[in-house]
Every structure is written in C-alpha cells, then in structure tokens.
Amino acid sequence: MPRKPKKPGSRTGRPPRNDYLKESSDLLTWASKDDSIILRAWCIDRKISQEELMSWTQESEIFAKAYRQAKTWIGVRREQLALKQGNGAPYSRYAAVYDKVLKEHEAEIRADSTVAQTQIVLVDKGSLDRAEIQTASKIKAKTKEAIGE
C-alpha cells in the first residue's frame, strides 16, 4: 500500500531533541533584560512547565550552567530592586532560590543542633500578674544562657 503524502509542516518518526545550546542562549538573553526578575516567567514565554525546565538542567550541563547564571543575574536584580524600594519582603521570601550561598548557609543553621529555636510572642504586660512576669524573666534568662549571651 503506498504511503500517504505528508502534509506541509508535519513530521513523522522520533520527536526532535531539544537544542540545549539555543535554549541556553535564549535563557541568558532573556535573563539579561532589566525586567526579567521572575525565572518562571521564562517558562511561560517558552510554553514549558517548571518541571520541564528542571529536567533540562539534568539532561544538559550546558543548559544547567546557563540556568545557574540566569539565577545569579535575576537574584542580584531582585535584591537591588528590594533595596531601592525599601521593602525586602518579596526578595526575602525567594532569596534562597536565587542565592546558593544563602541557601547553603540557612541549611547549615537548620542542621546545627546548638542553635536555639526562638519564638517571639508579644504580650501586653498589663494583662500579666507578678508570677507570670517572674516566669517570663526566668525563661528569658535560660534562653540567653542557652545561646551564650
């Protein structure tokens, strides 16, 4: 039986492999723009999922290197923007995503069992009686002793 003629633009056989060199170049070009501050936006522009982006970093060292460089550029830009605006909250929330050194430092702190876990609770002193104030003072003293102050 004769084959049907191909439609223009249709393909048969194995799907094409990603051109990681081109994708790397496109990512770095995009990340170098001043308005590129959210890496996920590149995924939207490319019509790919974040999971696919991450799989590319596993499949190609060239793309992984470009990805790391893009994260560095974007991280610096986000930090500068936060400093200019005087509000670091948006930067702080995602800082470890873009700053590998910060991420490693925070992991070390969490892993260090000698670092006291601190929780601050604000209480109106007027609502406490004398015994509660003395108990709070003892807890404060023990906490300072535990962290070496």
Structural summary, described in words:
- With 149 residues, the chain is mainly alpha-helical.
- The protein folds into two domains: 92 residues, no CATH class; 34 residues.
- 64% of the residues lie in helices and 0% in strands.
- It is built from seven helices and no strands.
- Helix 3 packs across helix 4 and helix 4 runs antiparallel to helix 5.
- The longest helix is centred in the middle third of the chain and has 25 residues.
- The model has no long low-confidence stretch (mean pLDDT 76).
Features:
single chain; about 65% helix; 7 helices; mainly alpha; about 150 residues; elongated; 2 domains
Distance between the termini: 87 Å
Secondary-structure-derived class: mainly alpha
The counted number of beta strands is: 0
Strand content: under 5%
Shape: elongated
Entry summary:
This protein is mostly helical and 149 residues long. Helices cover 64% and strands 0% of the residues. The protein contains seven helices and no strands.
Helix/strand layout:
Blueprint: H1 20-31, H2 39-46, H3 50-59, H4 61-85, H5 89-98, H6 100-111, H7 130-147
Helix pairs in contact: 1-4, 3-4, 4-5, 5-6
